[in-house]
Amino acid sequence: MKLVQVRKDSYYDSVFLMLASRGVQKLPGVTEAIVAMATPMNLDLLGDLGFDPASLAGLTPNDLIVAIDADDEAQATAAAQEALAGLNRKKADTAQGNGLPRVPSLGAARRLLPDANLALVSVPGAWAAREARKCLEAGLHTLVFSDNVSLEDEIALKKYAVSKDLLLMGPDCGTAIINGIPLCFANRVQRGAIGLVAASGTGLQEVSCLIDDYGAGISQAIGTGGRDLKNAAVGGMTSLLAIKALALDPDTSVIVVVSKPPAPDVAKRVVAALRASGKPAVAHFLGLPPSPDEGNVAFAANLEECAVLATLLADGRHDLRAARAALAEGPGDDRFRRPSLQRIDTLAAAEAARLSPQQKYLRGLYTGGTLADETLFLAHAALGGARSNNQTDPAWQLADPLKSVGHTIVDLGDDIFTVGKPHPMIDPAARADRIAQEGADPACAVLLLDVVLGYGSHADPAGACVEAIQTAKAAAAKRGGYLPVVASVTGTRNDPQDFGQQVRTLEAAGVIVMPSNYRAARLAIAIIQAAAHARRTA
Amino acid sequence: MSDQTALHGLFGSDSRIINLGLENFAANAAASGASAVQVDWRLPAGGDQRAVAALDKLAAGAKVDIEAANAEGLRRILAAKPTIVGIGLARDVVPGMAQDLILHAGPPVSWEKMCGPLRGAVIGGLIYEGLAKTPAEAEALAASGQIRFDPCHHHDAVGPMAGVMTASMPVWIIENQTFGNRAYCTLNEGLGKVLRYGAYSEEVLERLRWMASDLAPILSDALQAKGPIDMKSIIAQVLQMGDEGHNRNRAGTSLIIRELAPYLVMLDYPKEKIAKVLSFLNANDHFFLNLTMPSAKCTVDAAAGIEGCSLITTMARNGTEFGIRLSGLSGRWFTGPAGVVDGLYLPGFGAADAARDIGDSVITETSGIGGFAMAAAPAIVKFVGGSPQDAIDITKRMYEICVGENNVYQIPVLDFRGTPTGIDVRKVVETGILPAINTGIAHKTPGIGMVGAGLVKPPENAFRDALIAFAEKYAR
């Protein structure tokens, strides 16, 4: 079926014509489609293709021809209509999704934002060092979120950064708050006088959120990357530069350092730098027994104490001794609404009374690595040993990270769980599965969870695990027991997730929500201890 | 660190962020009140470790001052003053031209490896020169080894599409009046069945003969009467009239007719002959292309051969391979397979008919017009994907791979910003942003002619190989 339509005196540029032809050729049933001006050459062509010469008579190059060869008349007519419509169609406005200015290169970005002072690098690890160096060379302070950067590259980058008085946060730095702007995985905390330096991601989040909750605020929070203090060759280059900068910062009155155990020599230098700052300072080295305070430097025993001490020191009314005195736990909840250890013990006893005798073990399922470590250190000491994929002692490492044995604290953000999958803070589905798995284990006595809010995290991490929690609780009930579930929510009231709603969601599912990971861990451990005591006395 | 402030005053100021990687990080920072720019990051050199190593070696230190060499290259390109000074016969004016020599577009290629359109043009050229009587005879001669083939670029010349130039063809003579170097190009034959698309029928040869017997002498006489024509000024004008100097030449052709018409009508030729010349020019929008090409050629040639200069001074295709040459690596071609043009087709043709990318016309892009000036040519933006914004984006992207901006060629819609000029091979490889090239599409079968036009992606490996060779020579 050959159809010819003509529009007299309708000039179109050949490009538009070719485009219209192309669009129509794809339509069903169309074997040939020519949308063209009636030039002698095109008229010849149409004649050669067998279109009716009568329908082409008397046309001039100013006339538009739509010639369609299709299987049937309906298809031909539809194609001709589409061709004419196509000629007049404007390309739909392609609005830029989030309104961010986008440029093809670092150079173009610098031209667009000439006074830029900070670069975020989250490109694949193999390329991160190269990009970070270019950012540093451009005079930008640089946060490297990417991991898998070699130790050699980290050392070279940090040496270069220090020589230019530039901050190189990371590699593998998941969080920071610079000038009130939360970066990567960070929370919206109020601004204040406490400067944080942290070699641990969720450690920084937990301390900054607790400080916010206690009514104080953060001046700057600098992530350094996990190796900065731990590795003697890196030598705390970023931490030391950050401490010096906070010492000089008029908006910072208290300096806090949070880290996994540093290399001994590095720890000495960090403490020396804190002492030299002349400002009240708090240090917390996870897993190390707290040393006695030194001059202006307090050593906190856990993340929560770190936040409490910093808050007290920042109010200008407490010196270190007064802060220590105010810290002492009384029988009731304190001014920071922390449930007292005495109340925790009472609560634990009530929960333990509902367990069946075969329920013995603590199971901590964590999305935040530092929070997992904090719990692991507490549980390992209090319960005579706990297994974990984060254990450094091979005797206590999990043989199969997918299976809990005895008291087990799992860091689900570990590489062994995240190959080819999103981190559980982004997508908590993997943890939901693990919660159900623990619920099916008759020996599981307490489930302990973290819920981390803030930018970068899942939009509803509590909601993402309640169904699994209910399943686990139901399974325990079916066996004639009861499964206590304890959690803490790391976040602030200004985070993109609704903090209050997250807590309510958990509580509605029967979860006991504690105000810090430390308290949550203490409660979970106390339940295990109370149950063990009950078994012994029975 | 000073006594008063550390970290260059980072603390206490506002965070102004450049984000390379996960876009959410920039969006979240912006949502918290920071200014943030997202870099569309891609693997440097497409992840080619050798090319990245070459980039890093050059960045770490070079034997010569590459920036200074590139500045000199750019200075010469900007100072160039291409001027039409006459028309002559190839054998009389083109360096090294000879009866047994056929010049062609692109990097060197043997008869065996030539694509269909180039073979067709060679056949036509041999018949035109009287060296063969029939196509079969011409093919045998071409394959016999008695005919030499060489790129136009080796003879200060350029040719569109197949780019075949033989000794008896008339050529434009363009002189760069700043530096005295010249470039040559045949006269444009028009559209349809033409030699440059590989056609060699009697109709094609007849037209070529008329071009030598009538068109060239008449235009040459008019040119003699008028005197030299400043091409730089005309190209500057056409960019403000909707041409980009490669795929759209309507304004340029019109301006040339306007320049020559008063002198043409005063010549002592029969009116019919002059009228035929004017009609021929009028019927061929691309007549001006054969003037922009040698103008661009003598412009960038002035920047060739500078020690340590990483600017690209040649890009060209022969339908089999795409090749480039660098200023600082004289005499060396770096090639990759000629691409398939992403384009739109004339009535009756489709992608299955297309030959691979061919022609020296990409010399226009090399000099900073053509695809690089796409934003100036909204009338043909459909070739590049649709909207005028796409064309603007293409030109803006080209600034990322150039060391400078033209002082005379300007783009109205970019607030008369100069066109991106001086392509630095280091920037091409680093960013992975390949030169944007507008081009016509030839039918893959010799003798049919132009079937469409569009945008073509040059092979990335040619740029990487050139960079690696550059680093071998110049990195410390």
The first-to-last residue Cα distance of chain A is 94 Å
Order of strands, widest sheet of chain A = 16-17-15-18-19-20
CATH class of the largest domain in chain A, named Alpha Beta
CATH architecture of the largest domain in chain B: Alpha-Beta Complex
Instruction: List segments of chain A where confidence is low: pLDDT < 50 over at least 5 consecutive residues.
Output: 90-96
Task: Please indicate the count of domains of chain B.
Answer: 3
Query: How many beta-strand runs of chain A?
Result: 20
Total separate domains of chain A: 3
Residues in helix, % of chain A? 40-55%
In the CATH scheme, the class of the largest domain in chain B would be Alpha Beta
| Anisotropy-based shape of chain A | elongated
Largest sheet of chain A: 6 strands, parallel
> According to CATH, what is the topology of the largest domain in chain A?
Rossmann fold
Number of helices of chain B: 15
Structural class of chain A: alpha/beta
Strand content of chain B: 15-25%
Q: Predict the CATH topology of the largest domain in chain B.
A: Enterococcus faecalis V583 fold
Largest sheet of chain B: 4 strands, antiparallel
Give a count of the beta strands of chain B, DSSP E runs of length 2 or more: 17
Description:
The complex is a heterodimer of chains A (538) and B (476). Chain A has 538 residues and is an alpha/beta fold. Chain A folds into three domains: 2-88, Alpha-Beta Plaits, CATH 3.30.70; 173-327, Rossmann fold (3-Layer(aba) Sandwich), CATH 3.40.50; 341-537, Succinyl-CoA synthetase domains (Rossmann fold). Chain A contains 19 helices and 20 strands. Chain A has helices at residues 14-25, 40-48, 73-88, 106-112, 125-137, 151-163, 201-213, 227-230, 237-248, 264-277, 303-314, 320-327, 341-352, 369-382, 415-418, 429-439, 463-478, 499-508, 517-537, and strands at residues 2-7, 30-37, 64-70, 102-103, 118-121, 141-144, 168-169, 175-178, 181-184, 191-198, 218-223, 254-259, 281-285, 297-299, 361-366, 387-388, 408-411, 444-452, 485-490, 511-514. In chain A, the strands form five sheets. A six-stranded parallel β-sheet of chain A has the order 16-17-15-18-19-20, with helices on both faces. Chain A has a five-stranded parallel β-sheet with strand order 11-10-12-13-14, sandwiched between helices. In chain A, α5 (125-137) packs parallel to α6, α11 (303-314) packs across α12 and α13 crosses α19 (517-537). The longest helix of chain A is centred in the last third of the chain and has 21 residues, at 517-537. Chain A starts with a strand and ends with a helix. Mean pLDDT of chain A is 92; it is low at 90-96. With 476 residues, chain B is an alpha+beta fold. Chain B folds into three domains: 7-41, no CATH class; 49-77 and 303-474, v583 fold (Alpha-Beta Complex), CATH 3.90.1700; 81-294, Enterococcus faecalis V583 fold. Helices cover 37% and strands 20% of the residues of chain B. Chain B is built from 15 helices and 17 strands. Chain B has helices spanning 23-31, 49-60, 66-79, 90-93, 116-128, 135-144, 202-226, 231-239, 250-264, 271-282, 289-301, 363-366, 388-399, 425-431, 460-474; strands spanning 16-20, 35-39, 82-89, 101-104, 148-151, 170-176, 182-186, 229-230, 312-318, 321-326, 334-337, 342-345, 358-359, 402-411, 417-423, 437-442, 450-456. Chain B has a four-stranded antiparallel β-sheet. In chain B, strands 11-10-9-13 form a four-stranded antiparallel β-sheet. In chain B, strands 12-17-16 form a three-stranded antiparallel β-sheet, with no helix packed on it. In chain B, α2 packs parallel to α15 (460-474) and α9 packs antiparallel against α10 (271-282). The mean pLDDT of chain B is 94. At the A-B interface, α1, β2, α2, β4 and α4 of A face β1, α1 and β2 of B. β5 of chain A pairs parallel with β1 (16-20) of chain B, so a sheet runs across the interface.
